[in-house]
Amino acid sequence: MADVKFRVFRGNAEGGEEVDYSVTVGEGMVVLDAMFRIQETVAPDLAIRWNCKAAKCGSCSAEINGKPALMCKTRLDSLDTTKPVTVRPMRAFPIIKDLVTDVSFNYKVNKSIPPFKPKPGTDWKMFQEDVDRPQEFRKCIECFLCQDTCHVLRDHGKHEVFGGPRWFIRAASLEMHPLDVEDRIPMIKDKLGLGYCNITKCCTEVCPEHIKITDNAIIPLKERVVDEFYDPIGKAFRKLIGAGKK
Amino acid sequence: MSTVTYETHEHDVIVIGAGGAGLRAAIEASNLGLSVGLICKSLLGKAHTVMAEGGVAAAMATVDQDDSWQTHFYDTMNGGKMMNNWRMAQLHAQQAPDRVKELQEWGALFDRTKSGDFLQRDFGGHQFRRLCHVGDRTGLEMIRTLQDKGVHMGIEVYMECAITRLLKDGDQIAGAFGYFRPDGRFVMYKAKAVILACGGLGRAYKVTSNSWECTGDGHALGYEAGAELVDMEFVQFHPTGMVWPPGVAGLLVTEAVRGEGGKLTNKDGERIMTKYDPDRMELSTRDVVARAIYTEVKEGRGTPHGGCFLDVSYKPAETVIRKLPSMYHQFKELANVDITKEAMEVGPTTHYAMGGVKVDADTGMTCVPGLFAAGECSGGMHGGNRLGGNSLSDLIVFGRLAGLGAAQYVKGIAKAPAINQTVVDDAIKEMTDPFERTTTETAYDVHAELQDSMQMNVGIFRTEDDLQLGLANIQKYKERASKVVAKGGRAFNPGWHLTRELKNMLAVSEAIASAAILRKESRGAHSRLDFKDPSEEQAQVNYVVKRGDDGNAIVTPVPKAAMPADLQKILGEQKDLQPQREENKKTRLAQTAKE
Question: CB of A26 within 8 Å of any CB in chain B?
Answer without folding.
Answer: yes
